[in-house]
Q: What sequence folds into this?
């Protein structure tokens, strides 16, 4: 076979019909990102060798940036389960053009969250105790079980993408495994949706059951506080938009069209619908919180807020600026069809969910539960930020490698002037 | 939330806030008794290990009406625990006669969910490995295990002293329990005073009284039953704690819980009559 020496040296590994930049540039990019990764590794080494005292956490803020980060990435990683549910169970076919990315983003979010959790628990060697000595009354037990299982599902969903790599796929066994896994994908999508619904909910339930913390405590249905359902809905409302934003960011960075805009707009419409459902319940929940939980606890709405850092602006930003506004943009077609507005809505949507996870974690603990106590202040230090940076860097590296060598965007070939219209095999 | 467990014996405290001067002897005694390692830099009070903390309460009035009170806060040993119900690995539970909430250090994974759940801030985390200054390790209490970094700990009502009191009875060939006056009830055979926490023992003013809240013969029972000055912290949460506080000052009792402006202290279900 004649070689084209103008192509990058690793061109034989590229997906069929897709071009990539030079290997040198690619390695330089990976090297730059690896600096952040190494800083995170050093932070992890400090935590594991010296103890959690090297972080900014304290006895009032047992939960801090890391838990907020975990809740945030798990909510935003919900694109994987929700898009999978819509694609494989409800058969919304156009989503095949973005489902692979959603799976990889979900995989990065969940494995990243587990890595951070490993640092966050004081005795990481005992992390299996959650499976071996479970307390069936604890929402966290359910989270441990479901996240562990769902991580396996994401690995199973990721494997066929790797096996479809052009050179690996030449191996007959790899080819058949990938093919059969694709056939079974609706089953895994169903299991993933089931597991995700429960652990997204249980993460919300973790806060809702804290009857000693009126900022987070909620009434509920049967054993589930309302936060259980709100966390599921909010994850489904924001996860698809993170996938769209990442696809767009990858397009900007690579200079190639990867997903057609109509697919992004469809994801926006789905996210907007979920956001609307979420907001209806969230506003009802907020009203019930103000008028029921608060007075029952001997508190007023005003007492839940303090100064600038814990001010009411957070609630307004979460519900209106990052809730109602993106919801309107995503549901109103003329606005949604404007790319700038679609991406803006996506950013606001994700930011609103992150604010929600932040206040549920930090403001809940900052609130003085004892009447003679004061509001507490929490400031994460560089070790905590570096560990979060590690996950970003790990995600960037995994996405970069996946994009360069794996056929994750079925439309890429024809969107960039390739010979034939693309389409996922599955 | 799991069902509340009732026990024949319910160890508890009555702390008289009118007697407490805030001297901190209880905190020191607790630290020494329970092998709490000193912290190298104690400037951050939220990183200092104290199973029992004395809070300063103020009526927030200007001189000459200004008043303060001191409130020692051990673990409240709730019958409806916010902490034990959320622990994912059953490292803490209230499952033993006496109603003391346990903390099982070798089981704890250090997730700190219990700390987030406890509204009394009674739980502490080992941020680093404990280090005792040279020579001080010789003064450790042999009956109390030391804890490694990465686990949560809390006041146990000096549980090792409870064990010792029971061992003493066994050595004397006596039963652990005796029949109570009321039909079907049992009381601990441990004589009042034979099992006392180190904080109660160390208090110079006798502000902390320890005993069985279910035994009418115990002082703690008499101090807490039908006493209009007795209250518990955050009672309206329904935690059903085993630590009672006593004060004749209404503003002190009111600081024991959150009240809406027009609610009556200790009776939040009743509303103050509107002024005309």
A:
């Amino acid at each position: 076979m004649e070689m084209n020496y103008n192509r990058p040296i690793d061109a034989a590994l590229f997906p069929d019909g897709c071009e990539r930049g030079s290997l040198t540039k690619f390695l330089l990019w990976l090297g730059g990102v690896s600096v952040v990764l190494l800083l995170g590794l050093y932070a992890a080494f400090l935590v594991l060798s010296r103890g959690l005292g090297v972080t900014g956490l304290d006895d009032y803020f047992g939960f801090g940036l890391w838990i907020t980060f975990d809740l945030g990435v798990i909510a935003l990683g919900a694109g994987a389960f929700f898009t999978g549910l819509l694609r494989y169970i409800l058969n919304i076919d156009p989503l095949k053009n973005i489902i692979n990315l959603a799976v990889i983003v979900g995989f990065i979010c969940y494995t990243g969250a587990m890595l951070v959790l490993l640092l966050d628990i004081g005795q990481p060697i005992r992390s299996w105790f959650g499976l071996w000595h479970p307390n069936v009354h604890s929402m966290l037990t359910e989270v441990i079980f479901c996240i562990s299982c769902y991580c396996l599902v994401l690995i199973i969903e990721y494997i066929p993408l790797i096996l479809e790599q052009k050179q690996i796929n030449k191996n007959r066994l790899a080819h058949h495994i990938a093919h059969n896994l694709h056939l079974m994908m609706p089953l895994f999508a169903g299991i993933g949706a089931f597991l995700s619904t429960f652990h997204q909910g249980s993460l919300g339930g973790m806060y809702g059951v804290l009857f000693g913390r009126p900022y987070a405590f909620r009434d509920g249905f049967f054993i589930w506080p309302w936060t259980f359902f709100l966390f599921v809905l909010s994850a489904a409302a924001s996860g698809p938009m993170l996938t769209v934003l990442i696809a767009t960011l990858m397009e900007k960075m690579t200079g190639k069209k990867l997903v057609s805009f109509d697919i992004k707009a469809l994801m926006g419409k789905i996210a907007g619908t979920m956001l609307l459902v979420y907001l209806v319940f969230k506003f009802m929940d907020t009203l019930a919180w103000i008028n029921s939980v608060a007075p029952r606890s001997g508190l007023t709405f005003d007492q839940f807020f303090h100064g600038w850092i814990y001010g009411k602006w957070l609630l307004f930003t979460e519900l209106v600026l990052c809730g109602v506004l993106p919801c309107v943009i995503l549901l109103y077609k003329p606005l949604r069809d404007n790319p700038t507005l679609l991406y803006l809505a996506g950013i606001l949507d994700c930011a609103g969910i992150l604010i929600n996870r932040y206040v549920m974690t930090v403001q809940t603990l900052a609130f003085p539960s004892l009447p003679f106590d004061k509001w507490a202040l929490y400031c994460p230090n560089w070790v905590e930020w570096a560990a979060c940076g590690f996950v970003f860097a790990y995600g960037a590296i995994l996405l970069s490698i996946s994009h360069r060598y794996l056929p994750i965007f079925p439309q890429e070939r024809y969107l960039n002037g390739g010979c034939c219209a693309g389409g996922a095999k599955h | 939330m799991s069902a509340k467990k009732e026990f024949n014996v319910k160890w508890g405290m009555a702390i008289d806030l009118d007697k407490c001067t805030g001297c901190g002897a209880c905190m020191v005694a607790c630290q020494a008794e329970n092998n709490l390692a000193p912290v190298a830099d104690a400037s951050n009070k939220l990183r200092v290990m104290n199973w029992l903390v004395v809070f300063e309460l103020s009526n927030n009035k200007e001189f000459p009406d200004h008043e303060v009170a001191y409130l020692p806060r051990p673990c409240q040993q709730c019958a409806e625990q916010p902490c034990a119900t959320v622990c994912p690995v059953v490292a803490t539970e209230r499952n033993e006669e006496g109603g003391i909430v346990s903390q099982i250090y070798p089981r704890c994974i250090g997730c700190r969910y219990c700390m987030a759940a406890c509204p009394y801030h009674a739980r502490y985390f080992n941020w680093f490995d404990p280090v005792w200054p040279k020579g001080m390790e010789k003064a450790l209490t042999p009956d109390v295990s030391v804890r490694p970094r990465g686990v949560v700990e809390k006041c146990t009502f000096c549980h090792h002293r409870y064990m010792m009191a029971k061992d003493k009875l066994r050595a004397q060939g006596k039963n652990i329990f005796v029949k109570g006056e009321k039909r079907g009830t049992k009381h601990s055979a441990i004589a009042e005073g034979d099992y006392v926490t180190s904080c109660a023992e160390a208090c110079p003013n006798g502000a902390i009284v320890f005993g069985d809240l279910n035994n009418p013969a115990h002082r703690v029972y008499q101090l807490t039953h039908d006493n209009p000055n007795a209250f518990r912290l955050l009672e309206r949460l329904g935690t059903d704690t085993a630590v009672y506080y006593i004060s004749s000052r209404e503003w002190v009792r009111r600081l024991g819980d959150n009240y809406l402006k027009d609610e009556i202290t200790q009776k939040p279900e009743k509303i103050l009559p509107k002024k005309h």
Summary: The radius of gyration of chain A is 22 Å. The domain at 24-414 of chain A is CATH 1.20.1630.10 (Formate dehydrogenase/DMSO reductase fold). Residues 172-208 of chain A form the longest helix (37 residues). Chain A touches chain B through 50 residues (CB under 8 Å).
